[in-house]
Automatic annotation (TrEMBL):
Protein name listed in UniProt: Interferon 1IB1
Record's keyword annotation contains Membrane: no
MF-aspect GO terms: cytokine activity
Annotated signal sequence range: 1-19
Primary site of residence: secreted
GO CC field: extracellular space
Annotated family: Belongs to the lambda interferon family.
Pfam families: IL28A
Keywords from the UniProt entry: Antiviral defense, Cytokine, Secreted, Signal
GO biological process: cell surface receptor signaling pathway via JAK-STAT; defense response to virus; positive regulation of immune response
InterPro entries from the UniProt entry: IFN-lambda_sf, INF_lambda
Domain of life per record: Eukaryota
Annotated localization: Secreted
């Protein structure tokens, strides 16, 4: 099963690597203080640090027996299906979970390998928070695609094992960095 996950991940990464160029016009941002344009692509040094971290996490996962009851990040999930203003909310929730899970892995045994990626993710997360509008604390929430995704992430953290969460976050890491982050950074241009 791990081999299948690795093959799926490699297919996604290779597909993203052959994607077309980023549009040259500037995305429009409606939130004051939301400056995500610089994250349309990460530097080769940052991507290499993430590759080393992902490889180390995969090696760690191979040594443990884990089984997941659900797909935390299904292949059909695509931020482009959300409204532009909802995309930073979805990415922030995904990034929050990723940071939480990777911090636990770093505390366990992968600290040195995860230091740089965690630093980069914390920086992106801090910038992204300026793009996320405050959520109302009371009252009914509309049943939207965004609500469904957020609920799915919240439920998974309650019922999935740490090993399953690590596997899900690891296999989703490059999609988060190359597709989801790029989409939010592109704003209206991500279609």
């Amino acid at each position: 099963m791990t081999t299948a996950w690795v093959l799926v991940l490699m297919t996604v990464v290779l597909g993203l690597a052959t994607a077309g160029p980023v549009p040259t016009s500037k995305p429009t941002t409606t939130w004051r203080g939301c400056h995500m344009g610089r994250f349309q692509s990460l530097s080769p040094r940052e991507l290499e640090a993430f590759k080393k971290a992902k490889d180390a996490l995969e090696e760690s996962l191979l040594q443990n027996d884990w089984s997941c009851s659900s797909r935390l990040f299904p292949m059909t999930r695509d931020l482009r299906l959300l409204q532009v203003r909802e995309r930073p909310v979805a990415l922030e929730a995904e990034l929050h979970l990723t940071l939480k899970v990777l911090r636990t892995a770093a505390d366990a045994s992968l600290g040195v390998v995860l230091d740089q990626p965690l630093h980069t993710l914390r920086h992106i997360h801090s910038r992204l928070r300026a793009c996320v509008p405050a959520q109302p604390t009371a009252g009914p929430r509309p049943r939207s695609r965004l609500h469904h995704w957020l609920h799915r992430l919240q439920e998974a953290t309650k019922k999935e094992s740490q090993g399953c969460l690590e596997a899900s976050v690891t296999f989703n890491l490059f999609r988060l960095l190359t597709r989801d982050l790029k989409c939010v950074a592109s704003g209206d241009l991500c279609v």
